[in-house]
Automatic annotation (TrEMBL):
Domain Ferric oxidoreductase: residue ranges: 101-219
Cell location: Membrane
Residues passing through the membrane, by range: 23-44, 65-88, 100-117, 138-160, 172-192, 204-224, 230-250
Pfam families: Ferric_reduct (PF01794)
GO MF terms, alphabetically ordered: ferric-chelate reductase activity
Keyword annotations: Electron transport, FAD, Flavoprotein, Ion transport, Membrane, NADP, Oxidoreductase, Transmembrane, Transmembrane helix, Transport
Topology of the protein relative to the lipid bilayer: Multi-pass membrane protein
Any one GO BP annotation for this protein: reductive iron assimilation
A GO cellular-component term linked to this record: plasma membrane
The protein, known as: YGL160Wp-like protein
């Protein structure tokens, strides 16, 4: 009797391949909790200091209510990073954490997009778009830096590994090459967002900011393994679509209270608008 050949099944992915999926969902839940907390803070909190409280406490309360980036980002990232290092070895399973950086970067985009909606119907009653500008600037920078570090650390890892070809990993693998392109775009955005560069040519920054934002949202699902199409790509595309609709439907002519273009070494124009129209 002829024996059948022995067939060996090899796992397509390692045991850590899906290690970061739950972490991405966790970041999304934290984002939702933060939004609810922010809505409650602006609805029931108060900016004016209490006479019975210490000056330090009043200052913290004021900065918390005023959406100070240092306070709010500190709270947000404290919650997000609590389970970042968990279960897997940092030395023997470092790939898990490098991939986790990338997933963290992409999982935070829905919150960033939501807070910059104009108008934002969820927070419209107690917030204006301008309230979130400082937060948005620093939040966006952190997101892009996290994504950039994800790529840089992988390049370093492959470069120092004698058993791996950097060219094979970075250029010849389509998924990784897309990630490399994303890193270049993000780096260019960071350069354009530097204060002097942004003030010198704000139009360039604005165009690059929007194009790289769209590219980051659409290209990352091609690069990411395991995928981030649901729910992150769906949420990001939905929010992008709402941004576009808002800018078309709610765009209108308005009266400028004051305009100042008398600045040297910059093409910025400083305008003063009625606060009511910013909601």
């Amino acid at each position: 009797m002829k024996e059948s050949p022995l067939i060996t099944l090899v796992k397509r992915h390692s045991e850590t391949h899906f290690a970061n999926i739950k972490y991405g969902y966790y970041v999304l839940i934290i984002s939702l909790v933060y939004l609810i907390g922010l809505a409650l803070l602006r609805a029931f909190g108060r900016r004016t200091p209490s006479r019975s409280s210490s000056a330090f406490k009043n200052k913290i309360i004021y900065r918390l209510y005023d959406i100070d980036p240092a306070i709010h980002l500190g709270i947000l990232f404290f919650a997000v990073l609590i389970p970042f290092y968990y279960h897997y070895s940092l030395t023997t399973q470092s790939t898990v954490y490098l991939k986790r950086l990338g997933r963290l970067s992409y999982a935070l985009i829905p919150l960033n997009l939501f807070l910059t909606l104009r108008p934002n119907w969820f927070l419209r009653k107690n917030c204006t778009y301008t309230d979130f500008i400082p937060f948005h600037k620093w939040f966006s920078r952190i997101i892009t830096v996290i994504g950039l570090l994800h790529g840089i650390f992988f390049i370093i890892k492959w470069a120092i590994d004698d058993n791996v070809s950097l060219k094979q990993k970075l250029i010849l693998k389509t998924f990784n090459f897309v990630g490399f392109i994303i890193s270049i775009l993000v780096l260019f955005l960071l350069i354009c967002s530097i204060g002097p560069m942004r003030r010198y040519n704000y139009r360039l920054f604005y165009i690059v900011h929007n194009l790289v934002n769209v590219a980051f949202i659409l290209l990352t699902p091609i690069h990411s393994r395991p995928g981030v199409k649901f729910p992150f790509l769906l949420l990001n595309c939905t929010l992008l679509f709402i941004h576009i609709i808002n800018r078309i439907v709610f765009a209108k002519s308005l009266m400028i209270l004051n305009k100042n273009a008398n600045y040297s070494k910059t093409n910025l124009v400083h305008v003063r608008l009625p606060r009511a129209i910013l909601r």
